[in-house]
Write a structure and sequence with these properties.
With 287 residues, the chain is mostly helical. The protein has 14 helices and 2 strands, in the order αααααααααααααββα. A two-stranded antiparallel ribbon has the order 1-2.
């Protein structure tokens, strides 16, 4: 889930396979916009840089810096859509950094801005953030799950078709993995694009360890997007459970740059707990 109007603000794709050229192209668009001294153009360019700031784990600080500049530009030049975007970028990035007090202030600010300027897409983003925030605070799992289900209902009729596909079950799975609660297996659940990273844990929960090990061996790297850290944390959990050394090493290498951050929280949608927990789990298992 990206910020409202970001698809209009930029044609860049976060999850594109050719990540490095797109990162360079976004940086070049930023340089050109600065040379032209055009605030609106620079805000567009910075939104492109933001969209390409998921090429590896652990870039929440960089995204917060982008959000700060977008906000400053938007405030000085009355660019309301970019003011919304800047607050949302900061809300998500600060959540990933575990700075929830600051993230709460961004959530309050963008909620007020969305109401004042009639931006209906803002409310679901804020509701998802608040649900994630409660989960990150260690709210009892049943109450936290209820928050995620309420947030999912907020997407109904929001004009963002397909955004929620698989997000609710993924949020619940992440919560249960982190809080070490039983994982329930419902064959009718639509996991959407997240099914490969859920499958090994679901097979383990269904007492099918051989199939779980096979699913872990064939697990691809997550897309380079806002949920990569959460999906790597699920991969790490499965790797340790089935004793897959290769996947453990891949997960550790991917998550290491995000040490000290909160896995998944930069999405503003869900969390699977501190990255450091998974790094320690992997280090112990790898000896």
């Amino acid at each position: 889930m990206c910020a409202p109007d970001c698809s209009r603000s930029s044609r860049w794709s976060r999850a594109a396979p050719a990540t490095r050229p797109r990162v360079r192209a976004a940086a070049e668009s930023e340089r050109l916009a600065r040379d032209l001294d055009d605030p609106a153009l620079l805000a567009h360019a910075l939104s492109a840089v933001f969209m390409q700031s998921f090429h590896r784990c652990g870039l929440a600080r960089e995204r917060d810096s982008i959000g700060q500049e977008v906000l400053a530009l938007a405030s000085r030049h009355a660019l309301v859509n970019f003011e919304v975007l800047g607050h949302l970028i900061r809300m998500q990035a600060l959540g990933g950094l575990g700075r929830f007090g600051d993230a709460d202030r961004e959530a309050d600010a963008v909620a007020a801005l969305g109401a004042r300027h009639e931006r209906p897409l803002v409310a679901p983003f804020v509701e998802w953030y608040r649900a994630m925030r409660r989960a990150a605070d260690g709210t009892p799992w049943a109450e936290a799950e209820s928050g995620f289900r309420a947030a999912a209902r907020s997407l109904e009729g929001s004009g963002m078709p397909g955004v929620d596909r698989g997000i609710l079950p993924l949020a619940v799975l992440c919560l249960r993995v982190w809080q070490r609660r039983p994982i329930t297996v419902d064959p009718d659940t639509d996991w959407g694009p997240y099914e490969p990273w859920a499958r090994p844990l679901l097979l383990l929960a269904d007492d099918r360890p051989e199939q779980a090990a096979a699913a872990a061996r064939s697990l691809p790297d997550p897309p380079a997007d806002h949920l990569a850290e959460a999906l790597w944390a699920l991969a790490a959990t499965a790797a340790v459970a089935v004793d897959d050394t290769a996947l453990m090493r891949r997960s550790h290498d991917a998550l290491a740059p995000a040490a000290g951050q909160i896995a998944g929280a930069s999405s503003g949608l869900l969390t699977v707990g501190p990255v450091d927990h998974y790094l320690a789990l992997l280090s112990d298992a790898l000896g």
